[in-house]
Amino acid sequence: MADLYVLDTSSIFAFSDQGDGADEVERLLVAAKQHACRLEFCAMSLMELYYITLREKDEDEAARLVALVKSWPGVWIYPDEKISLQAATLKASYRLSVADALIAAVAKLHHATLVHKAPEFEATSTPKDLQISIPQQAHQPQTQVGDVRNQRERHEQNH
User: Fold this and answer.
1) Which helix (H) or strand (E) covers residue 4, if one does?
2) Are 66 and 89 in contact (CB under 8 A)?
């Protein structure tokens, strides 16, 4: 298992929705809790998680999902100038959204493995051995299950 992973928003949704690829993300979350690897998340994913869930469900569910994900083991990276300029270079070179370019820039600059479901990343200059492409499936919000539900319940009890 590589040392450092950056989870793209699509991989976070894969896990929270228990969709294709959820097992891979769960494996990484468990490994991170056991200090067998490190996880990073780009702060841009917070915006994506929130607005997509807000649009598809409601504000309470969006806030719950963001709080849940922020409780996961890992470091949240907020783009600085270096990340922004690397993202600009990636955006100029590949067909990436601004959010995807920022997330890819974090992975590239931190020499991390990018975990994603987004086909846009396949064409980037990130070496294939530094990508984990989990199966693609359209994002369909579902009730969270298993450990995610238990983690959410514990979080709500504490706040």
Assistant:
1) strand 4-7
2) no
All structural domains of the chain with their residue ranges = 4-158
Supply the DSSP symbol for 43.
T
Within 10 A of 18 (CB to CB), how many other CB atoms are there? 17
Q: For residue 77, what are its two tokens? A: 């990276």
Checking 106-111 for CB contacts under 8 A at 24+ apart, the result is: 106/6, 106/40, 106/42, 106/77, 106/79, 107/6, 107/40, 109/82, 109/83, 110/4, 110/6, 110/40, 110/77, 111/4
pLDDT along the chain (159 residues), means of 10: 86 93 95 97 97 97 97 97 96 91 94 82 52 50 39 45
Question: Which residues neighbour 104 within 8 Å (Cβ) at sequence distance 6 or greater?
Answer: 87, 90, 96, 114, 121, 124, 126
Superfamily of domain 4-158: 5'-nuclease (3.40.50.1010)
